[in-house]
Design brief:
The protein is 87% helix and 0% strand. By secondary structure, the protein is mostly helical. It has one domain.
């Protein structure tokens, strides 16, 4: 009879036991905790300093902006005052020139009227003399001879007409010369007024352009100064 094989291997039984954890404080752990606390405090300090710097920068730029606005306002007021002063000066000069022109015109007009009056008086005197001579001659010739009265009267009438025509022609010539002289004086006065007005306009334009150039230079200087101050503040 054959025999059955038997299992002769030993059986091992595992027994579970609870795991025991032993906490042991080391220097490395303490150092790590201390470093973490220091890093946290440093971060808090850095955030506080950053916020404070932001507030300082905000106040600085706000102050600079206010100063710039104040400076621009002051420059604008100065320019307006200068423009007003130049405008008043131009008006005063124009008024002075106009008064001078009116004065010269009045003076020339009075001279012309006085000359016309003298010429008119002379013509009336000459006419009266001629009339008296004519009347005297007429009476003499009438008394001398009645036959020649008609011829003498005709000659006197012709002479009187000639004298009157000469007087009228001379009077018209004097009046035309007076009118021409008055026109020349008026044109000269208007020419002077126009030149003074153009000079005033040119002066005003030059002052306006100089003021605009000064404003632009000041604006550029202010921008450059603000930029440099901002750069220095950022580097600090």
């Amino acid at each position: 009879m054959g025999s059955k094989p038997t299992n002769l291997s030993p059986k091992i039984k595992y027994v579970e036991s609870p795991t025991q954890v032993t906490k042991t404080d080391t220097d490395a752990y303490k150092q790590q905790v201390q470093l973490s606390r220091i890093a946290q405090r440093q971060n808090e300090v850095n955030m506080k300093m950053g916020a404070q710097l932001d507030r300082v920068n905000a106040r600085f730029f706000q102050t600079q902006a206010l100063r710039g606005i104040q400076a621009e306002g002051a420059e604008s007021r100065l320019n307006i005052a200068k423009q007003g002063e130049e405008s008043r000066r131009g008006l005063r000069v124009a008024g002075t020139e106009e008064r001078k022109g009116i004065k010269v015109t009045g003076k020339e007009t009075r001279k012309t009227q006085a000359q016309a009056g003298r010429i008119e008086k002379g013509l009336i005197g000459a006419r009266g003399t001629q009339e008296r001579r004519g009347i005297k001659t007429t009476g003499k010739e009438t008394r001398a001879t009645q036959a020649q009265a008609g011829r003498i009267e005709t000659g006197l009438i012709g002479t009187r007409g000639t004298e009157e025509r000469l007087s009228i022609g001379k009077t018209g010539k004097e009046q035309r010369e007076s009118i021409g002289k008055t026109g020349e004086e008026t044109r000269a006065t208007r020419k002077t007024e126009g030149e003074e007005q153009r000079k005033g306009i040119r002066t005003t334009g030059e002052e306006t352009r100089a003021t605009a150039l000064q404003q632009e230079q000041f604006r550029r200087y202010k921008e450059s100064r603000d930029y440099e101050q901002a750069q220095r503040a950022a580097r600090a």
